[in-house]
TrEMBL record:
Name of protein: Glucose-6-phosphate 1-dehydrogenase
GO BP term, pick one: glucose metabolic process
Every Glucose-6-phosphate dehydrogenase NAD-binding domain range: 30-213
Region (Disordered): 483-512
GO MF terms held by the record: glucose-6-phosphate dehydrogenase activity; NADP binding
Organism: Amnibacterium flavum
Keyword annotations from UniProtKB, A to Z: Carbohydrate metabolism, Glucose metabolism, NADP, Oxidoreductase
Amino acid sequence: MPVEISPGFNPLRLPSDRRLNRIAGPSSLVIFGVTGDLSRKKLMPAVYDLANRGLLPPGFALVGFARRDWEDQDFEKVVYDAVKQYARTPFDDDVWKQLAQGIRFVSGTFDDDASFEELHRVITQLDEERGTGGNHAFYLSIPPKSFPIVTEQLRRSGLADQVPGQWRRVVIEKPFGSDLKTARELNDVVESVFPADSVFRIDHYLGKETVQNILALRFANQLYEPIWNANYVDHVQITMAEDIGVGGRAGYYDGIGAARDVIQNHLLQLLALTAMEEPVSFDARDLRAEKQKVLSAVRLPADLGKSTARGQYAGGWQGGEKVLGFLEEDGMNPESTTETYAAMRLDIATRRWSGVPFYLRAGKRLGRRVTEIAVMFKRAPQYLFEESQTATLGQNALVIRVQPDEGVTIRFGSKVPGAGMQVRDVTMDFGYGHAFTEASPEAYERLILDVLLGDPPLFPRHEEVELSWKILDPIEEFWATQGQPDQYRPGTWGPESADDLMARDGRSWRRP
């Protein structure tokens, strides 16, 4: 079937990512929760950027659903403002006019049957007027507690009906439950309405260019894969650090904490991609199979008191600014035991990784904002060198920088210029911004396009979600018996107990 090209289409804007060169077919995106920050800062700008890259069909439609007394033109203004402020591609009047013709708004509440009847009428009308072909994706940018009622309303109103030759898909954001039990309950609710292949669980980290580069780095090169195992790797550190506090999210964050917020999803997905075996193909089923094998092989150390750490940031000075402690944030329970820092050691019971610990840490109000995977290699035998000649030489390391400075750094030893033999660490650095002229697509651009294409490699299925909770639940249950988390000063790298965790193994955290 020939693809009609949008008036604003410019082939020079297309990135080199072949999957992003696939143009979505006739379809609409319905966003529940359009008044939230995620929709305003990420989703609506990403839709425009896709249109600007020529990757959406000319008849594409964007429908907002919220408890607002808006008309279509009011919502159009909201989208316009979000695009002007947050879009990554230049504003193009022709592209905007084409996109704006398909913008609709439905005012309603989740418990109102009539609101969903109106939504059904609107998308049926879009099928006729815009040629969306009965293909509609429902993006639930809403609290998880609202998932059951919205999915039930989609079922009751017929909006979730699967019709031959058409598709209906649902997109849900993390958190995918708060433990294994609630994750299973959530999955039962969603998959009772939508088939498993029509459920897209968004983990925006998996849309980041550098995360996907893990697969290219490992499997497109002969250089790394032969040493990507316990024979050469000493340990792996996966870090997600933020230099901000919880701020206005105190009410949301209390009771969740760093481990549930980012380790259960983002960091365990990074662990799976780092540790998995080579898949048969990059097909979604083959990728999921290898990630699930890794997650099912993860083992917790016997003594969780010595192999995990947690903390809360205290008040103090950070970056020349006086900041509040976690328990002092507006709306926070002063006796909260929720952690803002979490660290843990995990082991993987496979031949490749036997004896290689994986250390995961995540926290707020740390030294700087950074997410990275550091593969730390065993030290080479030093019998050729005197101890003084290699006194400043550390371990070889391959560091995959996920954000903010996306790229890869390799650390190795080199001779210092001069008459003597002195060896110290040097680095070779690859940065996306320096190596490529093409702009990397934003994570939500890639993920929304994948939803519209029905291409699910980057989306975890419920099996991966449940395996992740099986890893984390015993740690959370242990922490629940341990009272208050340790305090740490803002701008540092966490509590002393996290350093002790590493020191017991004769190691130390890498300073990003």
